[in-house]
Amino acid sequence: MGTFLLSFFALLIPVAGIALFIYIVARRLAPLFRAAPDFRFDNIGKRLFGLYEYPHHRMPRPGYELSGYIHITTIICLGVLSLQVITLLLQGISPSFSLPFLDKGIIADGYRMISDLALTVLLGACLLALYRRIILKPERYNVPKSYGKDKTFPDALLSLGLLASLAVLDIVYIASGWRVDAYAGADTHILIPFTGTWITATIFSLFSPTANQVVHVLSFMLLIVLIFGFVCYLPFGRFFHLVTGPPNVFFKKIKKGSVKPVKWGIADDKLDELESFGVKKFEDFTWKHMLDFYTCTDCGRCSDNCPATTVGRPLSPRFISIKGRNYAFSHYPLKGPFIQNEPLMGDVFSDDEIWSCTTCGACEEECPVTIEYIDKIVDLRRGMVDDGNVPQSLQKPLSAIEKRGNPWGKMEKKRGEWTKDLPEGCDVKLFEAGDTAETLYFVDSITSYDDRMISIAQATAKLLCAGGADFGILGKDEKDSGNEVRRFGEEMLFQDLKNHNTEMILESGVKQIVTADPHALNTLKNDYAGLPPVEHISQFLARKIKNSDISLKSVEKPEAVYTYHDPCYLGRHNEIYDAPRDVLDAIPGLRRVEMAKSRDRSFCCSGGGLMLFYEPEEEERMGVLRVKMAAEAGATVMVTACPFCLVNMEDAIKIAGLEGKLEAIDLAELVERHLDK
Question: Which of the four pLDDT bands, split at 50, 70 and 90, describes residue 133?
């Protein structure tokens, strides 16, 4: 009778637990079935590999090693113990059940020893995580008062407490069962000294066989209840990522630097048929972006690395996800009717919060579960633009781009005037005049019109000439590339720019495109379609120097110390890190140092495109913080490879009081000075 009741209990709890879990998850995932479409079923092999590679690469990033290794350790331990849990549940129904190869023999004994070790390590990882949360209290976990009461701390303690309790109960269950078998003279596996199972089994040697049997049965019953209690609790908070994390990583964005279309399945030439653009209500988000909300671990790494958060702008990527998740929980409750079609802007997200983003990508680069922020923010901006809600300071440059093809509203015919001051022997062909060439130098707006940035265009032209390139420019036929226009939500204007530039480029008949502007590089490469290959001038130079087509003389200022600032759209969005450094290191005698934040952790200057016209509230300029980082690294010359970065760095040097101590220069300008003519 006792065996029957135990088997009935062992069957009832799993069935009830699984049914309840399915019900909860079905209610939680309900908004995903009402969401906008999202195409994420390409590159299956790459996505499968990412399930292994991405977490292991992202979790233990510098500065987050302890938490990263705790997570990796926990995942491995849970993976090892999964076979034991399956066996445990099924043995409650059929005591003789065993998975293949795990009944008797060397493999079975080996697995039991490994699982004993995994239980001990899992318990240690939980206790260490609790220590971090309660004692160390990393600052990135703090919740500002403006975001309300901190709900994550008690959720984290409860979840970790439940997981630690599962480990303890499992240890007690195995140790008491081991003692029962030992008393009966049955075969037992070797216990690894000083593991939790070994210590507990040693203590249980003081108890009688009957007492051990009682403990074994009671721990089994409690363990089953706790397992399914923990599983059913997961969808109630941040630990839902244990369920949604793997699919979220699998469905991550593959093409970096791109922006999602207005709506998947709608061709660009059909956009004017849409009744509404962007995200205005929760159901306008794609199902992947809703999955992002559920997957957020609330680790705070995104906001910890967000330059907007750092300088005190009203944006914290972490709370974009948290507020999205809270909205889903409150409007798609576990019981009762769903509440749909409520506006997001003003009620959930604020205008300043969404406009404060520079789209630098630091948050996405840091996230261990591949949450996407830029696409969400761009979609929210599309919705605001569609409703006519555009910051006053951005209305004029956007209007100027629409009328003149550049944000300053300058005459189209002046776009190529910078070529007049080039030296003899460096001829820039003009496609508008009927010239032909193999290479197009796409200059873009700021380098064509800004009095200071024109020198970058001239230096780039000289470098192309020195490298033997047969190149020309579109001149008045070129319009702004539209990188920021699209990311600021003006999709139809971007489509006009893209269509015009694409037509002009294809008509020119060029075979490749070179630009010195990372923003132009990014949009031509990732937002346009059907164009010839696009590369940055740093890539052109690195190749020509390596092939000895360009030679450089010794550095003009041997006493100077140089540092390189990675532009966001050259580095994080297009992963071009080595080429600019290789070019700098090719200058004989040049001394170069790295800043504390460099490469994929480079700190945004906030100069990207239309951000030059937007003045958000902030405690300190991003550019000022960046030049201070250069000074702290011991640099006297700050080199970048982006005209927008150069604008901000030169202004920031003045504001920071570093004139005479630090200067900024573009990579093309620096290399042109060191051409061995």
Answer: confident
Q: Is the pLDDT of residue 616 over 90?
A: no
1 has a pLDDT exceeding 60: no
Q: Clarify whether residues 73 and 211 are in a common domain.
A: yes
How are strands ordered across the β-sheet holding 471-473? 429-430, 471-473, 439-441, 512-515, 534-536
Per-residue model confidence as pLDDT tens digits over 471-511: 999 999 999 999 999 999 999 999 999 999 999 999 999 99
Tell me, yes or no, whether 371 and 438 share the same domain.
no
515 versus 46: the higher-pLDDT residue is 515
This model's pTM is above 0.85: yes
Q: Do 347 and 459 share a structural domain? A: no
Task: Give residue 534's pLDDT.
Answer: 98
Residues 80, 211 within the same domain? yes
Is the pLDDT confidence value at 124 over 80? Answer: yes
Q: What is the DSSP letter of 96?
A: T
CATH assignment at residue 506: 3.40.50
Question: Per-residue confidence at 434, pLDDT binned at 50, 70, 90?
Answer: confident
Long-range contacts of 397-404 (CB under 8 A, 24+ apart): 397/610, 397/613, 398/485, 398/488, 398/490, 398/493, 398/610, 401/479, 401/480, 401/482, 401/485, 401/493, 401/497, 402/493, 402/496
Residues 379 and 433 grouped into a single domain = no
pLDDT at 3: 66
DSSP string, 1-43: -HHHHHHHHHHHHHHHHHHHHHHHHHHHTGGGGGSBP----S-
Instruction: Tell me the angle at which helices 537-546 and 578-585 cross, rounded to the nearest 10 degrees.
Output: 50
Question: Are 59 and 205 part of one and the same domain?
Answer: yes
Q: What is the pLDDT of residue 202?
A: 92
Which CATH number covers residue 337?
1.10.1060
Alpha helix segments (H runs only) across 311-360: 317-331, 351-355
Min mean pLDDT across 80-89, 198-207, 442-451 is at 80-89
Tell me the torsion sign for CA atoms 378, 383, 388, 389.
Answer: negative
pLDDT for position 144: 77
* Residues 364 and 406 both lie in one domain: no
* HSE-up (13 A, CA, CB side) for residue 75: 17
Tokens for 178, please give them: 């081991």
Domain that holds residue 636: 561-673
**Residue type for 553, please?**
K
Across the range 657-672, mean pLDDT stands at 96
Q: Which of 295, 240, 261, 248 is nearest to 38 (CA)?
A: 261
Residue where one domain finishes, among candidates 386, 416, 433: 386
**538 inside domain:** yes
Q: Which of 215, 236, 257 is the last residue of a domain?
A: 236
CA distance 204 to 194: 14
Residue 250 lies in a domain: no
Name the CA radius of gyration of the chain, rounded: 30
Q: How many domains does the chain have?
A: 4
Task: Give the count of beta carbons closer than 10 Å to the beta carbon of residue 87.
Answer: 17
Q: Are residues 445 and 412 in the same domain?
A: yes
